[in-house]
Amino acid sequence: MFIRSRNLFLLGVFSILSVNLLYAAQGPLKVVTTQAYYANLVKEIGKEKVDVKSAASPKYNVHFIQPKPSDIRNVAHADLVVYTGMDLEEWWGPLLEAAGRTDFFPGREKSADLSRGIRILKVPDHPLSRAEGDIHLFGNPHYLMNPENAKVMAGTILEKLKEMDPANVSYYEENEKAFISRLDQKIGEWKALCSHCTGQEIISYHEDIEYFADFLGIKAEQFLEPKPGVPPTPKQLQFLENYVKTRSIKAVVMPTYFPKDAAESLAKRIGAKVVTVCQNVGELPGTEDVISFFDYNIKEISEALK
Ligand SMILES: [Zn+2]
Q: Are 72 and 98 in contact (CB under 8 A)?
């Protein structure tokens, strides 16, 4: 009698365990991304089969995010993580460590480095030192600003979701295909809207604009920062004022989170406009997904360069 009830008890425990395992296998894949832009890409491809959260609020400068306790909890319970790679998000490694998830370290199976397959701009031809102020030692990591690169990133995310959830391969493939086709159509519209931008020159606060400029055929080689990560100096502003004397510059561009005074003062002196170009999905109202983010940015620059 005792043996029988113990067996019944064990059977009960195993049933609960297997129901839980079954539930875990069928529940949405829990994904944490560094940025809201990537969370939107994951959602476009995974739809209801993924539960996605991003760590960096688009209101803040992505180079210097302070992760919150909820970010640590989200990473601790995640199945997959997605990040920029290179050295844009220096806070990401410490966050993974704080969450105790060394299995998410770069190069590991459940970790998607979106820089894979991207043509990186400004790869230095000599070693740089962070001591001199540079914050990007491996080339420009702001590749999300070119919508063509969103296609490469979507491909990387698709491969990872297929690996992690083989039962839904065709579902993810169909969603990715639909997203790419929508993006391709928009890319045509954006290029047409900004066809007059090609060949024009702008000045940017940080080098976060280069991929965006590259996409539209705009020249962006001068920055308010004398070096990436070093705030504008009077000397740099004087240099820029002299630089534009022989050129036509209609726009000084920057995202929302840098101080605006240097850009405004320069723009006033050279007769240009300060233009907001968002660097992350959701940075301003109406930019909540990748498509509306580029819609906004390209409309803004197109207007300014007319
Ligand atoms: Zn940067």
A: yes
Is residue 293 within 8 Å of 278, Cβ to Cβ? yes
Answer yes or no: same fold for 10-189 and 194-304: yes
- Fold adopted by 10-189: Rossmann fold (3.40.50)
Instruction: Give the Å distance between the CA of 103 and the centre of ligand 1.
Output: 27
Say whether 179 sits in a helix, a strand or coil. helix
Q: Which CATH architecture has domain 194-304?
A: 3-Layer(aba) Sandwich (3.40)
Q: Which residue ranges make up each domain of the chain?
A: 10-189, 194-304
Quick: pLDDT tens for 165-220: 999 999 999 999 999 999 999 999 999 999 999 999 999 999 999 999 999 999 99
The pLDDT tens digits for 106-144 are 999 999 999 999 999 999 888 888 877 778 889 999 999
What distance in angstroms lies between residue 122's CA and the mean position of ligand 1's atoms? 12
Distance 9 CA to ligand 1 centre (A): 59
Distance 63 CA to ligand 1 centre (A): 7
Q: What is the CA(140)–ligand 1 centre distance, in A?
A: 7
Residue 203 near residue 249 (C-beta atoms within 8 A): yes
Ligand 1 centroid–CA 62 distance in Å is 8
Q: Cβ(31)–Cβ(51) under 8 Å? A: yes
- For residue 143, the 8-state DSSP code is G
Q: Supply 91's token pair.
A: 């806070």
Instruction: Report pLDDT digits (tens) over 149-168.
Output: 999 999 999 999 999 999 99
Q: How far is the CA of 83 from the centre of ligand 1 (A)?
A: 15
| Å from CA of 208 to ligand 1 middle | 5
For residues 263 and 254, the answer to whether their CB atoms sit within 8 Å is: yes
Tell me how far the alpha carbon of residue 290 lies from the centroid of ligand 1, in angstroms.
19
* Cα of 89 from ligand 1 centre, angstroms: 9
